[in-house]
Design a protein that fits this description.
Blueprint lengths: L7 E4 L11 E5 L2 E2 L2 H16 L15 H10 L11 E7 L4 H10 L3 E7 L13 H11 L6 E5 L6 E4 L5 E2 L1 H11 L4 E5 L5 H5 L4 E5 L3 H13 L5 E4 L5 E3 L3 E3 L2 E3 L2 E5 L1 H14 L3 H7 L4 E7 L4 H11 L2 H8 L5 E5 L4 E5 L3 E7 L6 E7 L6
Parallel strand pairs: 4-5, 4-6, 9-10, 9-11
Antiparallel strand pairs: 1-2, 2-3, 6-7, 7-8, 11-12, 12-15, 13-14, 16-20, 17-18, 18-19, 19-20
Helix pairs in contact: 5-8
Length: 368
Amino acid sequence: AMRRGAYAVMVTGSHIPEDRNGLKFYRPDGEITKADEAAILAALGDIEASDATTSPVPPVPEPDAIARYRQRYRAAFAPRILEGLRIAVYQQSSVARDLLTDLLAGFGASATPIGRSDTFVPIDTEAHRPEDVAFIRGVMASGDYDALVTTDGDADRPLMADGTGRIVRGDVLGLITARYLGADTAVVPVTACSALERSGGFKQVIRTKVGSPFVIAGMEQARRAGARAVIGFEANGGFLLGSDVRVGENVLGILPTRDAMLPILASLAAARAAGLSLADLVASLDAGEMASDRLPNTPAERSGAFLARLGEAGFRDDFLRPIGSPQAVDQQDGIRIDLDGGRTIHFRASGNAPELRCYAEARSARDA
């Protein structure tokens, strides 16, 4: 759509039940912003009150879109960059399931498709479902694979597990990918790990509210300020390329909307180039440990009331006393609280489902 200068609508299918999937809107220059959302909502009343009708515009087929997307990565990465890796491709209902298998094989990996489904599977790449964790561990227990890869339904968020069957956090995949691409500026939501500032090697890290429109706005701000290689990513693994970057001798063009393919390819390539397993590469980052989960079917008014109380110092101290002492508070998106011992806990209401989410960060998995 950007190449043609066209408006676009994306049919989404992610971690929520299929009856709640929706639409995502794009202008010719990219994904709509929060300001656009406000303008759209403001205009709805005018449209409903109007007698004006419009004739539907017939869609224009783009039979070469998948081929161009495949070529985007074939032109950037060396042909046999994943030579010798054994990858399980958990296909489920992802729209990228065949393309992902084909691309990995094209870069020299042994890509084995598993778990194909004819019905929608709501893969959450951030708060992992117990059945997905158990399935992945069972697959990897065979010792037949170096890694497992998959995406959510609409293929804009990756999910990867190392050879032990442990799922690699989405923000860690983002960190690996950003370093592999030589980014100087990272734009991430407040839910991403604090290791970015500590060990990311970036000139600057810009923190935003949760949601790709906020990350995109941050990337645009960084570009205007003169940043050279700008990337963005989220705790769910979705990766946004805010400027053209070099991959070896090749150039990978800007793509400022969530993408799952780049972090999958770059993370595997980074491990291969370092001569490390994916697990050892992750361990070398010293990124700490995070845990996250959610309370589903929690109405916004209940989440809102709880978050409002957490904003009160007295309630916050009492509520968190069993686990630690609050040191600092960030209310940019929900309530993110720094605790003693270099730990954080973050509560926020989901923006696209009636859910209350919690994120915890600590030095060890046990503490998280």
